[in-house]
Amino acid sequence: MTDTILELDGVVKEFAGFRAVGGPQGLSFSLRRGGFLGLIGPNGAGKSTTFNLISGVMPPTAGRVTFDGTDISRLSTAETAALGLGRTFQTPRAFASLSVLDNVMAGLAHPAEGPLAALLGRWKPAEAELTGRAEAALERVGLIARRHDSVANLSGGELRMLEVARQLVRAPRLLLLDEPTAGVDPTLQGKLSEILAGLHAAGTTLVVVEHNLGFLMSLADSVVVLQNGALLAEGAPADIRRDPAVIAAYLGA
Ligand code: ADP
Ligand code: MG
């Protein structure tokens, strides 16, 4: 087991000839196991697309993504999830017709039996245990009182916390969060900060895309700055904050 959990090597993504990720060289960076990486950059820099390439929403046009020694460049989202990768989306996704609790449970299946077990009537013994895990996750994100509500009644910030709960319950080894504080009120942001610090302390590797730099810089132990799909800077939060190229391109004078 090496110290590197995630490696991007010359990754490029083009949409109809437009290079959204990669720049002239292809995008390369690596992430230490247990690290907390902040991924920042102006709108359109390629942050969400980079998450899509890592998690298997779409394959790169060129280059390689390696997760824990396995080339995951061509794997589907289901396959990367099965390997222990989790992510949330910039625009939260939920099953609108399901309750808050059922949304958290939807991603879970009895690990030994798989989803078919439910159809075969062998689901029951596992159900109580899975419900307990889902409720614990909802407790952690502050949504336990809403567990029987329809997700249609959740605010934008609460939907984001629901996405976090859906990942907590799966306990991924590598978790990618795309703008988790957007639309989240200060109280829930505080809770989110505690949750992420707790995951980090427990050894989960994190990559967080954020525009709220105060939030991110207090949590991350390294930062990658993207501009026009290319790596503009990489380093410790304190060094990134005073990097002249980053200030000129992104942080503003
Ligand atoms: P960020 O998350 O940093 O704001 P994105 O990764 O969403 O940036 O987008 C990077 C660039 O790629 C943008 O110019 C965006 O319009 C383009 N882009 C992203 N996804 C697609 C797509 N599916 N089809 C075409 N262009 C896309
Ligand atoms: Mg984005």
Secondary-structure blueprint:
Layout lengths: L3 E12 L2 E4 L5 E6 L3 E5 L6 H9 L6 E6 L2 E2 L5 H6 L2 E3 L12 H7 L9 H4 L4 H18 L14 H13 L5 E5 L7 H16 L3 E5 L3 H5 L4 E6 L2 E6 L1 H5 L2 H8 L2
Helix pairs in contact: 3-6, 5-6
The chain binds adenosine-5'-diphosphate and magnesium ion.
Protein name: ABC transporter ATP-binding protein
GO molecular function: ATP binding; ATP hydrolysis activity
Pfam families: ABC_tran, BCA_ABC_TP_C
Question: CATH class of the largest domain, anyone?
Answer: Alpha Beta
Q: Taking strands numbered 1, 2, ... along the chain, how are they ordered across the largest sheet? A: 7-8-9-4-10-11
- Tell me the name of the CATH homologous superfamily of the largest domain: P-loop containing nucleotide triphosphate hydrolases
Beta strands, count: 11
CATH architecture descriptor of the largest domain: 3-Layer(aba) Sandwich
Tally of separate helices: 10
Rg on CA atoms, Å:
19 Å
Percent of residues in beta strands: 15-25%
**What can be said about the biggest beta sheet?**
6 strands, mixed
CATH topology of the largest domain: Rossmann fold
Task: Kindly list the characteristics that best describe this protein.
ABC transporter ATP-binding protein; binds adenosine-5'-diphosphate; binds magnesium ion; five-stranded antiparallel beta sheet; alpha/beta; globular; Rossmann fold; six-stranded mixed beta sheet; 253 residues; 36% helix
Plain-language structure description:
This protein has helices at 47-55, 77-82, 100-106, 116-119, 124-141, 156-168, 186-201, 213-217, 237-241, 244-251, and strands spanning 4-15, 18-21, 27-32, 36-40, 62-67, 70-71, 85-87, 174-178, 205-209, 222-227, 230-235. It has 253 residues and is α/β, with parallel strands linked by helices. It folds into 2 domains: 4-94 and 156-251, Rossmann fold, CATH 3.40.50.300; 95-153, no CATH class. The strands form 2 sheets. The chain has a 6-stranded mixed sheet with strand order 7-8-9-4-10-11, sandwiched between helices. Helix 3 runs parallel beside helix 6. The site of adenosine-5'-diphosphate has 10 residues, from helix 1. This is ABC transporter ATP-binding protein.
